[in-house]
Design goal:
The complex is a heterodimer of chains A (233) and B (184). Chain A is mainly alpha-helical. Chain A has nine helices and no strands. In chain B, α2 packs antiparallel against α3. Chain B is an all-alpha fold. Classes of the chains: A mainly alpha (233), B mainly alpha (184). Chain A: This is Energy-coupling factor transporter transmembrane protein EcfT.
């Protein structure tokens, strides 16, 4: 299963570095919320428009965005017209456009930041032993999904009504809880126990300082390899 | 053979991490289907109550909510930028507070449904903060926030109702301690 379908389906022509996107995204969203000057809307719209062009959005994505924007504008402007008068539609439009500018950077970040880059950055910014936990979770999550997929297939073969089209019927939802959710949670607990035991055996733990292989050691080996190669040439 | 306490802590924190990722993946998947407002709240509440009931850690739901919230802010999912954290924080704090005050009710349908309803409704504070900072008129804020929260609250209650039988079955299998306990 692809967790970040939008980021890989249609690669961007020029993707800004991941760290830049991860800084720009919350910053642009925050500016759209807090900056109320007359130039704020055009400047933010221009900046986000450039990023949108860089991400090469497909027609499907543009359509989805268009529908979301339409509903946003209709609901907020409608509320303004209902509460005050029809003359107030401009204020409603301003607020709804601002809400759209808050939402676009996030969508762009999901599209432009590949998961591997995200994982590397997480390992740099998280404090203490959390990078170990975060990278373990990210590494083993696909394995967990694979186990859940196998459970789903087995349950379908047993006759459980959990195929996607059958799940459209609310009467089959209790089946999904007992046949898929429960075994999936048991699997998650088992996988977490396995990882924790393996980590403890190898000396990695939450309460010891060793949560990663010592970097200087890795660097020393790499330097030694390079020196040996240079010497042989 | 007994499992060492440090290993159990690591297992619990890994489980919290898995729940946070599940919550994010569910939110990402549900973003594709527009139409029903607040439907993502079903999985949010489900994956907030679950780690709290399974691990018994005092701040398990808050940790799950914070992890998922921080990742959402970094990925910019949803509206509000850094304010998005509030939308995760209020429900998760409420779940932790409810389990702290009423330990041992994890398997009760009524308790989980009520916790889900109120926890999902508590997210109204985050929505109102965003609307206020965007400059929305104060008269409109309440109506807009209520519109956005009411669907979420109903889906939150459904998430709570879905997680209760699972907790009961896990207790029956001995995967969760039956006696109420708090750790961490």
């Amino acid at each position: 299963m692809n967790l970040w379908p939008d980021a890989t389906r249609r690669p961007a022509r020029f993707a800004p570095p991941a760290w830049l996107m991860l800084v720009l995204c919350p910053l642009l969203s925050l500016l759209a919320v807090t900056w109320h000057g007359p130039a704020s809307l055009p400047v933010l719209a221009g900046a986000e428009g450039v990023l949108l062009l860089l991400s090469r959005p497909g027609s499907k994505l543009l359509l989805r965005m268009g529908i979301a924007c339409f509903w946003q504008i209709a609901v907020v402007t409608g509320l303004y017209c209902l509460r005050f008068s029809v003359d107030q539609w401009q204020n409603g439009l301003d607020v709804s456009l601002r809400l759209i500018l808050v939402f676009i950077p996030g969508m762009l970040t999901i599209r432009l930041v590949p998961p591997a880059a995200l994982e590397r950055i997480l390992c740099r910014i998280l404090p203490g032993n959390l990078p170990f936990v975060a990278s373990c979770c990210l590494r083993f999550f696909p394995m967990l999904l694979e186990r859940i997929r196998i459970i789903h297939e087995a349950q379908v073969l047993r006759g459980a009504r959990v195929l996607p089209r059958e799940l459209l019927n609310p009467r089959n939802w209790p089946d999904a809880v007992s046949c898929i959710a429960l075994p999936a949670i048991v699997q998650s607990i088992e996988l977490a126990t396995e990882i924790a035991d393996s980590a403890r055996i190898r000396g990695f733990d939450m309460r010891t300082k060793r949560t990663t292989w010592p970097l200087n050691e890795v660097q020393r080996h790499a330097d030694a390899d390079t020196t040996a190669k240079d010497a042989s040439q | 053979m007994t499992t060492p306490a440090s290993s159990t802590t690591l297992r619990d924190i890994l489980l919290i991490g898995f729940c946070a990722i599940f919550m994010l993946v569910a939110k990402m998947a549900l973003r594709l289907n527009l139409g029903i407002p607040g439907h993502a709240m079903f999985f949010t509440i489900f994956f907030l109550i679950l780690p709290r009931a399974v691990t018994g850690l005092r701040f398990a739901a808050t940790a799950t909510g914070l992890a998922a919230g921080l990742a959402s802010v970094l990925l910019g999912m949803g509206k509000g930028g850094p304010l998005l954290l509030l939308k995760f924080l209020f429900p998760s704090l409420f779940v932790d507070a409810a389990f702290l005050l009423f330990p041992g009710y994890g398997g009760s349908l009524i308790f989980c449904g009520l916790v889900g309803l109120v926890a999902a409704a508590s997210r109204i504070a985050g929505v109102m903060a965003t609307d206020y900072l965007v400059g929305m008129d104060t008269a409109i804020i309440m109506a807009h926030a209520t519109l956005k929260t009411i669907g979420g609250a109903l889906f939150g209650a459904a998430g709570g109702l879905a997680v209760a039988p699972i907790i009961r079955k896990l207790k029956a299998r001995g995967m969760i301690s039956v006696a109420p306990h708090h750790r961490g």
